[in-house]
Every structure is written in C-alpha cells, then in structure tokens.
Amino acid sequence: MPAQRPKHQSARAAKKHHPRLQIVFLSHPQRSSHLSPSAPAPIVQSPRREQISDLRSLKPNTELEHIMKLANKIALVTGGTSGIGLEAAKLFRNEGAKVIIIGSNAQRLKEAEQALGEGITALRADLRDPSQIDRAIAEVVETHGRIDVVYANAGAGKAAPLEAVTREQIDEQFGLNFNGLFFTIQKAAPYLSNGASIVVTTSFLNAVGTPGLSILSATKAAVRSLVRSLGAELAPRGIRINAVSPGPIDTPFATKLGIPDADLQKTGEALTAAVPLKRFGTVAEVAKAALFLASDDSSFVTGTEVVVDGGLSQI
User: Fold this and answer.
1) Beta bridge partners of 121
2) Contact predicate 104/155, CB 8 Å
3) What is the mean pLDDT of each run of 10 residues along the chain (315 residues)?
C-alpha cells in the first residue's frame, strides 16, 4: 500500500505546488462550509519581495509590499519651499514622482532643494508674472516632455480690517492666490498627459467668515469656484482637478499675515478650542490628502474639495 500523505501539508511542500504563492495552514475556529472539519484553513500570503519588480525605496523588513502611488509621474508643485508645499513635494518624491518645485525666493529654493535631496528640481519664478510661469513650464517640458500632476499650492495673505484694506493688498493677494494659480494651470494644460491630475489649495476660510481676512478668504472662494469650472472644461481629456482645503495647520503661513505675535497666540488658542478635534493639523496630514487627489486612488473624483480642518467648518 502506498504511503499516505500527511494531513497537514507543510508550507515548503505547498510552495512546490504553487511557486508564486506561499500557503500557510493554520488552525482556525471558524471554517468555511466547503472545508471538512479536520481540514486546516489556508491563508494566502503576498508574493515574496524578489518576485516584485520595478519598485524603489523598499524598506527591507516590511511585511507588505508598498506600491508607489506616483511612480514615474512628473509632478509640479508651486509654493514648494515651505509648509504644505514642501511636505507634499517630499511625499510625492517618496511615492515615485520626479518633482519640480517652484518658488520666488532664491535662498528658500536652495534650502528646500538641499533638504529634499535627490529627485527634486527647484525652479525660481514669480507666479504673479505670467511670462515667468511660461519660462518655468517650458523648462519642465523641455526636460521631461510632459506633466502628470500639478499641485498649485502657492499663496499669500495679509490681515486687515475692512477700513484698512488697500488696492495694493487686493492686487497682491489676488495676483498670487488666483491669477498665479490660474495661469499656472492654463500654461501647463497643453502639456498635461491624459488622465493627469490637478490639485489646488483652498482654505476653510472659503466656508466661514473671519474678521480681518476678507481678501484672503475671497481669493480662496474664487479658487474653489474655479475648480468646478475647470473640472468641466478638462473632463473630456480625462484630466481631474480638485481642491484640498486646510484648516488651522501648524505652518509658517500664519506668521506672514502681519498679525502681532500676542494677537496671533490668542487667535491660535481660540482656533484650537473651536476645532472639534482640539488641535492644529500637521502639514503631513494635508500632504496626504493632496497625494490622494494627485494619485489614481481618486480616479473618479473631480471638481470637489477635500476638507482637512479637524471638523472646524463641518461640525
């Protein structure tokens, strides 16, 4: 009589029959109806690391393989020298993209490029000047041939009560926050690949009224409207455009609003108390939302806004 095979097949033996998968048999209290009471429950594990090709930057001891969300994508990030933009540039690069950051300050560009390291290109351009946007886009296209992701994040604000707002303040904030953003998208559009993604930064300010920030809030509301209009225009090309709307985030942005330090501290304390989650958000949390919108994870999402404000404008 031929020898019977043991009931519980070893993982090594299973691997011989299924070279691409490793089968491990474990006892389990809940068995499927098609298994006999004595049969072990099979668990199919992920393929081994050496069976997965064309992946970079893998940590050697991870249990599950990490598929990069922006592998081989060309990503342009404006306002990429600090805060949310800098964090997003780093995250996009870590997810496989070749990232180009744009900023207007030469020293901050140099520092950002050094901090980010390999896989980052820094270009200097004042987005209030469409001709400088032209030059930056031309350089990107000359080097890479296309653009797959645009993250239009550059912005500025100036706090002032109604009676103190000047024409210069309006022109400066709309010039960057709306005009600069619009012309960045317009001039990049001919070179966007089919299925490309555009992400813009709005703000919780477009949904709430905040004394002293009327112009900044108006620019962000205009950008939110633009996302809907351009979403309709670009949809036939399969290009998506969405907004990420940060709430109170721990970045240098607030220090540039021209608010005295004492008042800024009081405002921060009041915002912390008002946020349902009782804290400021982090740049990493906003960058992850931007990555979701930039990647194929959001392939059926366009014209909308992802709010990252701890519930401040929603609850």
Assistant:
1) 100
2) no
3) 47 41 37 42 45 47 64 97 96 96 95 90 97 98 98 95 96 97 98 97 92 95 98 98 96 75 83 94 97 98 97 92
From the number of C-beta atoms within 10 Å of its C-beta (0-12, 13-18, 19+), residue 38 rates as: exposed
User: Using an 8 Å Cβ cutoff, are 121 and 99 in contact?
Assistant: yes
Distance of CA 233 to the CA centre of its chain: 22
Query: How far apart are alpha carbons 76 and 154 in whole angstroms?
Result: 12
For residue 30, the one-letter residue type is: Q
Domain regions of the chain by residue span: 11-51, 74-308
Return d(Cα 20, Cα 17) in angstroms, integer.
9
On whether the 74-308 domain is CATH 3.40.640.10, my answer is no
Question: What contacts 308, CB < 8 A, 6 or more positions away?
Answer: 244, 245, 246, 247, 249, 281, 285, 286, 289
The radius of gyration computed from the CA coordinates of the chain, to the nearest angstrom, equals 25
Both tokens of residue 76?
């342009």
Q: Residue with structure tokens 């930039």?
A: 294
pLDDT digits (tens, 9 = 90+) for 153-208: 999 999 999 999 999 999 999 999 999 999 999 999 999 999 999 999 999 999 88
**Rounded Cα distance, 244 and 263, in Å:** 27
Return d(Cα 11, Cα 163) in angstroms, integer: 76
